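Proteins fold reproducibly. Next comes a concrete instance:

***
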Amino acid sequence: MMNAIRPLRCTLVAIAFATSASAYAQAIDPSIASCLKAWGTHPFGPKPKFTTLAVSVKVFGIGGNPSDTVRTKAPALVLVNTGVNVMGGTTLELLNPNGWYCFRSNVNVMGSLNIRADCSAHLASARDGATVLGSNSGDKSVTVLGSTRVELIGCS
């Protein structure tokens, strides 16, 4: 009797694991889901594939300026990871006219973040923002004693 139950138990465990793994595989990144909701109509379907733009950390002006300069023929969904800028200036270039850029969030303290985006690119933030003693044209990041500015380029 015990030998007959063991294969049944293994089968039930395998089914439960497969079901939970399948549900996990269908879930999309919460930031991507938030941006897709913000855009409303988009070309990516229910299970979108996306690339991730590397994180940027800049302190006292030391650090890199991330950019996406690849021009795709089809719409490209890009998750822009959290950027941190402290007492310096960062320029983020998003130059794909078919780019759909989803910002996880940005933190800007006593510095400036300049986002240069192609005029045809789509921008959305996964979160609402806050500004304290600064300016934040998109109000979609955290800015303290600094500024965040979006500059559209290539507009006719």
In short: The mean pLDDT is 75. The chain has one domain: 29-153.
